[in-house]
Amino acid sequence: MKILCIALAAVLIAALGYVAYVFLAYHRLGDIPLEVQGNGSLEAEAGEEYRIVSWNIGFGAYEADYGFFMDGGTESWARSPEKLDANLRNIAAKLSSFDADFVLVQEIDSDSTRSYHMDERAYLRDVLPGETYASAFAQNYDSPFLLYPFHQPHGASRSGIITFSKAGIVSSRRVELPVEGGFMKILDLDRCYSVSRIPTADGHTLVLYNLHLSAYTSDGVIATEQMKLLLADMQAEYEAGNVCIAGGDFNKDLLGDSSVWWGEPDRDYTWGQPIPAELFDGLNLTLVAPIDEEDPVPSCRNADSAYHEGQYVLTVDGFIVSDNVEVLSADVIDTGFAFSDHNPVEMTFAFRGE
Q1: Do the Cβ atoms of 139 and 166 come closer than 8 Å?
Q2: I want to staple 273 with a disulfide (CB 3.0 to 4.6 A). Which of 11, 21, 126, 220 is the partner?
Q3: 235-263: b (≥16 Cβ within 10 Å) or e
């Protein structure tokens, strides 16, 4: 009995010690300037047509048959360094083939247990080189070591978002977003968006936002609060005479009700709620939800198991533009979720020099 009590006490002390470590190690990065690498040579001009692509690459782990533990699957790491390397090379080759003027990438790891501490940014900078693209990386979160799931602890994660531009970026910064408090902050970690400033030929500024809003929250409300901050920032830039484009993973149903296109989900997800339309009231900003009504393709699948017919799919990736941007087209690029739980999305646009 004494031995059992000692063992139980040891387990309890270890558990309490770990909980204390997680909360003490938790920190937020705040608003910080970002390093800009490379020298894009494109001169952005009013009236010209440009192409922007956004893609959440799921830290390179999500092959078509991958199921993530936070989405109802069982896996928490990329399956092996070799498989991760191959998948990242496929993602990089795909992005290079788009030859886009602007590229926004989310969930790219710089030093994480789940991705074998590979610096995944190098794969993209190899194919989107500094001679052609300026780039700026913003760390989204730097999490303490998570012991769950017990069969393969998720570990520590350093992950973020990276922006590439064929036009030169004169400055870039990370903007901290609000997150939930209490235990939920450990699940959803830190959040931010990045703001990159690109001068245009007529003396204005193209302000390019890259974002990855909260997913694993108690009720999805915090992502709406994050949207309010983003929209207020964009509106202020527009009123200052600048051109504003935001793109990324909103973790919201951008179509309002994606089940109209691909059927009802099996259950409710806090990350799949629609964006409240009233958020845009009185603003000079428009949500661009990519969809081809003749051949609709979703931008995201729930990675509860291998990709299959009837799996919950929706569109959470897209763009927001200011009124001085003319959207010429917006669509989802169908990869069959071969390399990520997201398909890339694209938009062609022109802007007015007002």
Answers
A1: no
A2: 220
A3: bebbeeebbbbbbbbbbbbbbeebeeebe
Whole-number Å distance between alpha carbons of 285 and 283: 5
The string of pLDDT tens digits covering residues 195-227 is 999 999 988 999 999 999 988 766 668 888 999
Domain ranges of the chain: 29-351
Average pLDDT, the chain: 90
Q: Spell out the SS3 assignment of 67-86.
A: CEHHHCCCECCCCCHHHHHH
- For the question of whether the overall pTM of this predicted structure is more than 0.90, the answer is yes
**Residue 328 pLDDT exceeds 60:** yes
Looking at domain 29-351, its CATH architecture is 4-Layer Sandwich (3.60)
Is the confidence at residue 348, as pLDDT, over 90? yes
Beta carbons within 8 Å of 309's beta carbon, 6+ residues apart: none
Distance between CA atoms of 164 and 123, rounded to whole angstroms? 13
Compute and round to an integer the Cα radius of gyration of the chain: 21
Rounded Cα distance, 193 and 235, in Å: 15
Number of residues written out for the chain: 354
64 contacts 307 by C-beta, under 8 angstroms: yes
